[in-house]
């Protein structure tokens, strides 16, 4: 692994096989990658990128993650969505875009990559803020999601707001704090709207400074108490970016967690 964990965000990778649109706007698109090898069709894996929902971070920084997942034999879609700082980004556009993408992408991927994508709901892999978005979709539209692998997710928005993660990122997404827009937190916060029907694995590094592991511990505790099929994998020597880096020591645990979700189907 690189001495600088953030190097994964700008590591060059081959371009996608095809880009498809799930809406009419420029950011309502997804990059598709064919799975490696000649194995049977598998469920689509939809990668939801992080970046604290901000416009300066887009799907390109999950290129190494997507290439790594394709190397494991999965068809992969790197979804883009409107973000804060863009027209229509934030509440409610960011969340609506990801819901729409998850619903549309399996059909688009089957058409674009015939014989490589199994019909049916996709597996979602969300990192950081993308983990919050993946958990949100699973909670409000469970029929569209087969499973969620949440990598260092912002899984407790009230606590993330209290800690002022990334300098007001949650308030920028939702338009205020929990006391100002409680209805928005009630809909968007994974720790409030637990995905009860969707198998979920949370993988989080203990050394994470961008999104403290305490948020995942709280989410998984609430989910388990509610009867959800949710597990937490803690990685003692991992920080925030190792979970999306196929060259890191965390990668075998990420691959194992995704395989377990596929087997649950």
Automatic annotation (TrEMBL):
SUPFAM superfamilies: alpha/beta-Hydrolases. InterPro entries: AB_hydrolase_fold (IPR029058), BD-FAE-like_dom (IPR049492), GDXG_lipolytic_enzyme (IPR050300). It comes from the Bacteria. Residues 31-222 form the BD-FAE-like domain. Keywords: Hydrolase. The keyword Hydrolase applies. GO terms for molecular function: hydrolase activity. The keyword Hydrolase applies. This is Alpha/beta hydrolase family protein.
């Amino acid at each position: 692994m690189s001495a600088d964990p953030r190097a994964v965000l700008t590591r060059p990778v081959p371009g996608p096989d095809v880009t498809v649109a799930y809406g009419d706007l420029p950011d309502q698109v997804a990059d598709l990658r064919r799975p490696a090898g000649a194995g049977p069709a598998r469920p689509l894996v939809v990668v939801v990128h992080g970046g604290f929902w901000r416009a300066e971070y887009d799907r390109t920084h999950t290129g190494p993650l997507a290439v790594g997942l394709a190397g494991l034999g999965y068809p992969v879609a790197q979804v883009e969505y409107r973000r804060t700082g863009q027209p229509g980004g934030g509440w409610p556009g960011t969340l609506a875009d990801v819901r729409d993408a998850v619903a549309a992408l399996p059909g688009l991927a089957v058409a674009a990559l015939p014989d490589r994508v199994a019909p049916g709901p996709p597996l979602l892999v969300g990192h950081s803020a993308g983990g919050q978005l993946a958990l949100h979709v699973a909670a409000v539209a469970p029929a569209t999601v087969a499973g969620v692998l949440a990598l260092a997710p912002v899984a407790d928005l009230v606590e993330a707001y209290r800690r002022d993660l990334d300098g007001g990122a949650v308030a920028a997404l939702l338009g205020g704090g929990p006391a100002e827009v409680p209805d928005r937190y009630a809909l968007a916060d994974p720790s409030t709207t637990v995905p009860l029907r969707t198998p979920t694995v949370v993988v989080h590094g203990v050394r994470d400074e961008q999104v403290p592991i305490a948020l995942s511990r709280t989410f998984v505790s609430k989910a388990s108490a509610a009867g959800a099929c949710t597990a937490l994998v803690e990685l003692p020597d991992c920080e925030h970016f190792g979970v999306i880096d196929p060259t890191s020591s965390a990668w075998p645990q990420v691959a194992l967690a995704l395989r377990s979700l596929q087997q649950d189907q």
